[in-house]
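DM from R.C. (forwarded with permission)

"hey, sorry to bug you on a friday — could you get me a structure for this? deadline for the figure draft is monday and I only need the backbone to look sensible"
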Amino acid sequence: PVHTLMPGLNKRLLEHVPNPDRLRRIHCLLTARMQDAELKGARLGCEAVRRIALEHAGDVSLRPRLVLRGFSPESQEAEFSPIGRFEDFRGHIEGRAYTEDSSEIYRDIRESSLVVMPSLSEGFGLTAYEAIAAGVPVIVSVESGLAEYLLSAGEHGRIDPSIAELCVAQVLGDNAQVVADWVERISHIFA
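My reply, with the result:
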């Protein structure tokens, strides 16, 4: 199928003002075609959120949940298999079907307290860019065009360099260190 992408940011996202008091639970969002779950870093996102949730087992308000938007309804179980056993992540993730309905995606972004994009390779990262426009914090892979843009904006004084550096994370290297770095960054945002 052919999909038409209209350049520019959605006005509803640009006008969105996040209300942290409304968020009773930390709600993270990762959108991607889950048939490419490995390339999109879904395991990294799930593992980081699971570790934070286990650290805060006694306080539901500090236990994050990760919404994975992008499963094929007929093959969610097969698409989840590169991530791991669903049972290992039960209670920490929610799978949602892929959609081309922009209003659903915008609602997901507006309801999120963080958008993560841990892709091993990403040309740009439109959903994370839209989240920034909506005032929703992001953590993106250093292996993305958006990371390049954010770091460059930090270097040239268009945004605070410390914010740009906090938003951009490694996805390659020692897995334990990479997961620990994402856990630290996510935890820092919600501290």
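R.C.: lifesaver. The first strand starts at residue 27 and ends at 31.
me: no worries. The chain has a mean pLDDT of 89.
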